[in-house]
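Quick one, T. Sequence first:
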Amino acid sequence: DRERQEAAAAAAVQAERAAAMTEAAAAALKEKETAVSQMRAEVDKLRGTLSSTIQEAQRASDAADARHATEVAAVRAEERNTAVEERRAALAEAEVAHGDALARVERERSAAAAVAASEPFEL
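Structure tokens:
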């Protein structure tokens, strides 16, 4: 009977130890679950921050693309303006050359008319 009481007492002590270990394991698990939950919340927060950063970078990239397109358009417009100015200058030179040619033709015609007027007309 005494052995059974000692065995029962030992079993009770072991049961208490097992219960205490189970409670400690449950508490540790609860702490780990809480830590995991906090980490997940932090990851979600970081994902949100990353998403916002990516959107800001995309907007900045779009703005840079628009600025570049504007700069390219401005350069092309300047090139067209330069080409127009060069054509105008060439046209002005051509007009001057044409005027010079007309004046030369008129001088030659006048000289020919003077020569013809000074020569007797023969039939």
